[in-house]
């Protein structure tokens, strides 16, 4: 059993904490085809029952999986965050991932820079972005030191709020290196062009690098395009995105998705302002101009309210 510094809290206080001060962690790992690796990672996730996997999204074409984890955060007498079960759970899952996945042998239709590619913390319920940022920086130091993996902090976890897509662009994340639409192995220099925030400057080709951040809730929404013309899909994606002069606070990628379709993967940075309906409408309009059919898009995760609700249901037997 993982030792918690809060084992001595009385039951009522611990129950209140679990219900109110919650953080969500989305952990993206570059693997979805190796069942043994995923089983090992998921066993590690279950070592501490105070962390709950509320969702899992895997995509074989992308060869990528995302785990959505939730637990509480606790504070000292002055109100400073000092502990969350998420910390040790994420480290255990990362350790299992590094032990079972070799980035040099990995390929997929989604960009990535590491075995543990991205870890982002979101505040839920009454938790704050500062608390999410504290945990992101704590986990980043652990991963950099324990696994000797370069770690880049982003958004609220970074001292100047550097954006994730900016760091990825600097590191060559968006450039496919296989058949013009696939990512395989470690294709970048082993000496990084930018100094990481944690860990070494030299990259292990088997492990790659990790991005770790904290930010308000971000929705991920994918729109299938019924065409294998990835160039057309990329043009549409560019025109939908804020960077391409499209919808503000929307980031997109045009990707091959299976043998007979492509997909526009979207990050909605302010989903309450620019939501999925506007993205869907814009994609459909632009695709019609290209003579392409579009399917209804789909979210890859639950809403933050639903995630908190599922967490409460899953732990209810433990706290009653």
TrEMBL record:
Gene3D superfamilies, per database record: Formiminotransferase, C-terminal subdomain, Formiminotransferase, N-terminal subdomain
Domain of life: Eukaryota
Boundaries of every Formiminotransferase N-terminal subdomain domain copy: 21-216
Pfam families from the UniProt entry: FTCD_N (PF07837)
GO MF annotations, alphabetized: folic acid binding; transferase activity
InterPro entries for this protein: Formiminotransferase_C_sf, Formiminotransferase_N, Formiminotransferase_N_sf, FormiminoTrfase_cat_dom_sf, FTCD
Bilayer-crossing regions: none
Protein name: Formiminotransferase N-terminal subdomain domain-containing protein
Organism whose genome encodes this protein: Escallonia rubra
Lineage: Eukaryota, Viridiplantae, Streptophyta, Embryophyta, Tracheophyta
